[in-house]
Amino acid sequence: MTGHTHKSIYRTQALPRSSFQSRKAEGRMADKNVHEAGFTPGGIKGGSTGSEMMSKEARSHGGGVPSGGPTSTLQEMGAKSSTHSSGFTPSGISSGTKASGMMSQEAKSHGGETPKGGTTSTVQSVSMGGKGK
Q1: Which of 1, 19, 55, 97 is the most buried (most CB within 10 A)?
Q2: pLDDT computed for residue 34 by the predictor
Q3: Does residue 35 belong to any structural domain of this protein?
Q4: DSSP 50-117
Q5: What is the pLDDT of residues 48-89, one digit of tens each?
Q6: How far apart are CA 108 and CA 114, in angstroms?
């Protein structure tokens, strides 16, 4: 079949560049907010919101920071820059993600509500640039 040109009947449609760029920027912002709160790849920065949270959480748990609590969760995400990819974004929690699963589980264990000061609400607050309170 030399001399014939094949024309594709399929057309692809890319996402608008601005939509892709805004999601990417939102992801960078969530990770940036967590880093600025003191949760970094090198550990929790002294004098930061993160160190205050760690101190308060340790005092309320007899000297240790529990695994799966707000401080350990934020530090894990800060170390890996995985806040956004876990589903915590500056505009809210993304459905179908680790974050939405955490929120659902926490709500089930607290009578249908996500408690203020719990892991989900604290991580979401920090990813949005808040202080986690």
Answers
A1: 97
A2: 94
A3: yes
A4: HHHHHHHHHHHTTT-PPTTSHHHHHHHHHHHT-TTTTTEETTEEPTTSHHHHHHHHHHHTTTTSPPTT
A5: 999 999 999 999 999 999 999 999 999 999 999 999 899 998
A6: 8
66 lies in some domain: yes
Per-residue pLDDT, 50: 94
Q: How many domains does the chain have?
A: 1
Phi, psi of 92 (to 5 degrees): 130, -175
44 part of a folded domain: yes
Per residue in 89-116, pLDDT tens? 888 899 999 999 999 999 999 999 888 8
Residue 93 tokens, joined: 């929690």
Residue span of the structural domain in which 41 resides:
20-127
